[in-house]
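Record 1 of the preview.
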Amino acid sequence: MEDDGLQGSYDWIHPPAGETEFERWHAEDIHAMGKMWQAGDVAVLAATSTCCKRLLQNDVRQITARVIVMPSQTDRYFVVDDGEPEAKNLKNGKFNPTPTIWGHVGGGANEVDTKWVDGEISQFLSEGVLREVESLRIDG
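->
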């Protein structure tokens, strides 16, 4: 945190007035965003019904795109334990938690996290390009 000019977590959680994005938002817009986030949680259905859980897993299994699931190891909103089963249900999923102390904003809250995430994504993308080249050699 000191690399970012902060003395501790309090400075990060309580920035000086006028230095946060949300201060420019209307309170009703923030409220609406929160309500949309809550209402859009399909995992709630899966948690309350075995039938819905199976449907969600089957839907996720239909995704054929390569996906990297990178939750922050210290996130308390989207906990790491939720991401691993999601990645396992994806046909081409990779589970790669982000090592960070920054919780929910980990992976982009500071230069160290951003550099790590950029490197992991670059590697993930280059692996896909290599697979595509290999399939062209085999098919071609």
